[in-house]
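Hi both,

Apologies for the delay on this - the queue was longer than expected. I finally got the zinc ion-bound model through. Below you'll find the protein sequence and the ligand SMILES exactly as submitted, and right after that the structure tokens for the full complex including the ligand.
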Amino acid sequence: MKLHNQAMNRLFDKYLPQAEKEPMRAQWAPYLEKVEISVVSRCVDHFTKEWNRIPSLAEFLDHATTEERLQAKRKKQTEVRNCPNCDSGFVTVQHEPFTVRPCHNCLPETYDAWVTGQYEPDS
Ligand SMILES: [Zn+2]
């Protein structure tokens, strides 16, 4: 919780008078501690730089959900880029006609869809 508290401080220090910080922290902490610190920290950056008022808890958590999805997507993209078994998630199975299949190693869900015939390119 230490890092979560530090992140909350950055936000509260900007917008709240001293007397309101502790009650706010008590209210937010149970929700924020369920969120990864990397996400909380990015959200605090967002709300201190892009906003000029403190967000409501619901607004904060809403942005956290968006940020979580973004980070998961970036992580996935890095995995695919660094996968030793394929070229950007796809493996060439036939050169004429040119056919590729999703990589089993880094895109297992896409690969399963391909195996069962449910895979649609670009879907
Ligand atoms: Zn791969």
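Main takeaway for now: The chain has a mean pLDDT of 94.

I'll put the files on the shared drive as well.

H.
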